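In the design runs reported in the main text, the only information available to the sequence generator was the tokenized backbone. The following block is the verbatim input for one such run; it is reproduced so that readers can re-run the procedure and compare outputs position by position.
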């Protein structure tokens, strides 16, 4: 393994390190305040770290909400509640929402996300479930990534999450290429 590859693995591991990066006193305080020691990561877990985990926070947030909107595209197409559509549009931008709504029907199967659309927190939690569907078979990594996102993921079937994640990646690329307008 080259020095550059080793450096990338070390950077990934540090990103996931969480409380073990704290000193002994801070770690004890963290535990007293209810923090649990996460399960240990394997080298394979670190190597499987998704690319979005190291993105800047603003880009992660955009991707998180876009992933939630993509997972809910079938429901968003049918909704007549302007508050829900306005909330999603405020988070991802009207152009991105229009792109999600104009995606071909059947691209993403129906997901149980009506309740998630009721609040900003629910939207973020659903987006986290979509992003974490990529590592659902790695519980230690999924737990650390959920803490990195600062959210408890919404229950979502992993297959639906993976399909929505793939479609959201395409939407993010289009958004960044200027094909749709970004959120203000």
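Verbatim output:
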């Amino acid at each position: 393994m080259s020095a550059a590859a080793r450096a990338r693995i070390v950077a990934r591991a540090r990103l996931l390190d969480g409380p073990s990066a704290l000193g002994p006193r801070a770690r004890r305080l963290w535990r007293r305040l209810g923090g649990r020691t996460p399960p240990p990561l394997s080298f394979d877990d670190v190597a499987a770290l998704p690319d979005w985990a190291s993105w800047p926070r603003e880009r992660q947030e955009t991707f998180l909400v876009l992933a939630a909107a993509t997972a809910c595209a079938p429901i968003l197409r049918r909704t007549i509640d302007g508050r829900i559509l306005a909330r999603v549009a405020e988070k991802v931008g009207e152009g991105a929402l229009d792109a999600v709504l104009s995606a071909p029907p059947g691209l993403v199967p129906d997901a149980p996300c009506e309740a998630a659309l009721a609040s900003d927190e629910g939207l973020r939690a659903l987006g986290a479930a979509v992003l974490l569907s990529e590592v659902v078979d790695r519980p230690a990594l999924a737990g650390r990534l959920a803490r990195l996102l600062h959210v408890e993921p919404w229950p979502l079937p992993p297959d639906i999450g993976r399909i929505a994640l793939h479609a959201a990646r395409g939407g993010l690329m289009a958004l960044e290429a200027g094909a749709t307008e970004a959120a203000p």
